Amino acid sequence: MGERCLLDRILQPGSLSVHFQPVMDVRALQPHYFEALIRGPRGTSAENPTILFEYARRKSRESIVDRACVRAILDAARGLPRGSTLGINVHASTLAMDEGFVEFLGAAVNARGICPRRLVIEVVEHAEPGDVPAFRDALAGLRGLGARIALDDVGLGHSNFLMILECRPDYFKVDRYFVDGCHQDSHRRAVLASVARLARPFHARVVAEGVEDPADLTALARLGITLVQGHVFGLPAPVGVTLWPSRPQARS
Amino acid sequence: MSAASARRVLLLDDEEAILLPTAKYFRTLGCTVDIAREAEEAEALISHRRYDLAILDLRVTRYGGTEGLEVLREIRRRDHATRVILLSGYVSSEVEAEARALGADSVLPKPQPLPHLAHLAFVLMGGSRG
Question: Would you identify the CATH topology of the domain A6-175+206-213+227-233?
Answer without folding.
Answer: TIM Barrel (3.20.20)
